Amino acid sequence: MNLIETRWTTLATLPPELRWFGDPVLRAPALPLTDPHEIQALSADLARVLGTIRAQTGLGRAIAAPQIGVLRRMFVAYDLDTDRYLTYVNPVITAKSAEHGRYQEMCLSGMPLAATVIRPWEIEMDYLDLNGTSHRETLDPMRSRIAQHEIDHLDGILFTDRADPKTIGFEFDWATLRQRNVLSKVEDSAWT
């Protein structure tokens, strides 16, 4: 079996909860969460699905509730440094840097589609954690990118909506993509 066949076979075995591009739930705005039991249960479901996808593909830094068919404002991110899943409830971007960055993004709901997306370099975000504690945090450039991608999901926006259309394509060699894909700043003149 060649690399492309292997990748398609892998994608076919991903968790059945995962919604794919074309599913209308991915275009609908998500609603805020308030029920502590719903927050706990949804966080566990998102972490389980993301963990399964990471185990099967080696890909996936975060997943938003609409990606498993739940229209709630939550995403779970995998922290590479701590090997933990972090929950972000009702996240809101409160500030964006004037600087921008370029990165080739993928989406668990659209694999193996990839495209170059320019986003603000850093953001400040308000959110509740799994225990309902309120936070305001300025995120580093990669965590900012991940949060922006996931918050877009909560608003019914896909990364392809923000991508340079000339860069949209399929990426089957995920190991090479990870090695060569570097988040880089964009000069203001290139962005405007």
Please outline what is shown here:
Helices cover 32% and strands 28% of the residues.
Which helices and strands, and how do they pair?
Elements: H1 3-12, H2 36-57, E1 62-64, E2 74-79, E3 84-96, E4 100-106, E5 113-120, E6 123-128, E7 134-138, H3 141-154, H4 159-162, E8 169-170, H5 174-180, E9 184-186, H6 188-191
Antiparallel strand pairs: 1-2, 2-3, 3-6, 4-5, 4-9, 5-8, 6-7
Count of domains: 1
Instruction: Write the H/E string, N to C.
Output: HHEEEEEEEHHEHEH
pLDDT < 50 runs, ≥5 residues = none
The H-level CATH homologous superfamily, spelled out, is: Peptide deformylase
Helix run count: 6
Distance between the termini: 45 Å
CATH topology, anyone?
Peptide Deformylase
Name of the level-1 CATH class: Alpha Beta
What does the average pLDDT come to? 93
Strand order of the largest sheet: 1-2-3-6-7
CATH architecture: Alpha-Beta Complex
Helix content: 25-40%
Count of DSSP E strands?
A: 9
Instruction: Note the beta-strand portion.
Output: 25-35%
Task: Tell me the Rg in angstroms.
Answer: 16 Å
Q: How would you describe the shape?
A: globular
Which structural class do you get from the secondary structure elements? Answer: alpha+beta
Report the sheet with the most strands, covering strand number, pairing sense and barrel closure.
Answer: 5 strands, antiparallel
